[in-house]
Amino acid sequence: MIDYIVKLNDKPTLVGIDFAFSIPWDNDLVGPRQIGDVRALWAFVDGLCDQTPDLYAGPVWTGEQSPFRPYILHTKYRGERYRRNYRRKVDDVEGNAISIYHMIGAQVGAGSFSGMRMLHKIATCHGKSIAIWPFDAIEEAKTTVVEIYPSFFYRKAGVERPRRLDLLASNYDALDRALSFYDGRRQCGIVCRSVDQADALVAAAALRKLADSAAFMYPECEGFDRREGWIFGVPVRYGKRS
Known about the structure:
Helix content is 33%, strand content 8%. It is mainly α. The protein has one domain.
């Protein structure tokens, strides 16, 4: 994934990735005493997991010395500080996203911490050519990486996310309606057999449709900490451009 993103340097490109780029920034863990900004967070996660290959972040939730562990609900334990509603500001605004610390059932917590290791590598080695929004200014970068939540794109389009069984039966009605909302269409003959494939198509169409100046806004409001990041496309009532 890193190599692919790095090679996208021939023309301006917007890359959407489905994981949380940061964590709730209002607890004892991430105060100025330990982790001061989001890059320090990514570096901390990478360092905590530096003995695990392929950017796996298992030590975040398995390591008994991990400072994240008390906040996490995992299949094998419940951290004493875990709260289901312990979410970032953008998760509350979006309304359906769950806490990054909720690691049971359908969730992106594990993948998000692995993703932070990837963001650390990108920021460390390619920070001048690749912007990670909203933490970087985007004007000078050929490639901009943003956090996305495909389920939000379906809801914005007023369409239920397609089910795997529908896709396997070549029932593309929901997918095609979502694509149409973002001025996209599935070309004749394109077969889509998994929800992940459908998500990728809809997300690509939404990124193209929404990528104007208003989309690159982040909130400036009481209680919001920019270090938490923002999901691309989620509306901002009050804000400014990064």
